[in-house]
Amino acid sequence: MQLESNPVSHHENIDKEKLPELMKELIDLIGYANMYRLISSFGGQDVYIPKYPKRSKLSDELPLDALHTLSQEYGGTYLTLPTSRQIDIQGRNREIIHALHNGESRKTVAKRFRLGIRQIANIRKNLA
């Protein structure tokens, strides 16, 4: 499946309401780019959020201020992080709509994104 190449740069187009609750909380807490960096590295896993951010492997993935904010909210607990799949699918669907609006046929778009023509039609119907 072809997914959006840089979902961080197009975050203003993401429908936040379709995201898992924890992902929405993380966006509000540490911002979209930091949330995406975190779930890209650790999505689908239980991740320990330390009470003391400087001692954490998460410091390799997040800026210290974001890690400090996470520690204040969730320090000493494990978070089961969602995967980036919902965001990636939304990005892919935007690319599909863009291709269709630019005159590409459903068959061509379906082949490029490795989806069925019916799925392309459903995406068009739901997003257009």
Name a few traits of the molecule.
128 residues; mainly alpha; two-stranded antiparallel sheet; 53% helix; 6% strand; elongated
- Please state how the strands of the largest beta sheet are arranged side by side: 1-2
Domain count: the total is 2
**What gyration radius follows from the Cα positions, in whole Å?**
17 Å
Helix-strand string: HHEHEHHH
Described by its quaternary structure, the protein is single chain
Shape, per Cα inertia axes: elongated
Low-confidence stretches: 1-5
Structural class: mainly alpha
Largest sheet: 2 strands, antiparallel
Number of β-strand runs = 2
Overall residue-averaged pLDDT value: 88
How many helices? The count is: 6
Instruction: Give the fraction of residues assigned to helices.
Output: 40-55%
Domain Mor transcription activator: 58-123
Protein name: Transcriptional regulator
Pfam families: Mor (PF08765)
Describe the structure in your own words.
The protein has 128 residues and is mostly helical. It is 53% helix and 6% strand. The chain folds into 2 domains: 16-83, no CATH class; 86-127. It has helices at residues 21-30, 32-42, 64-74, 85-101, 106-113, 117-127; strands at residues 46-49, 77-80. Helix 1 packs across helix 2, helix 4 crosses helix 6 (117-127) and helix 5 crosses helix 6 (117-127). The longest helix has 17 residues, at 85-101. The chain is elongated. The two termini are 21 Å apart.
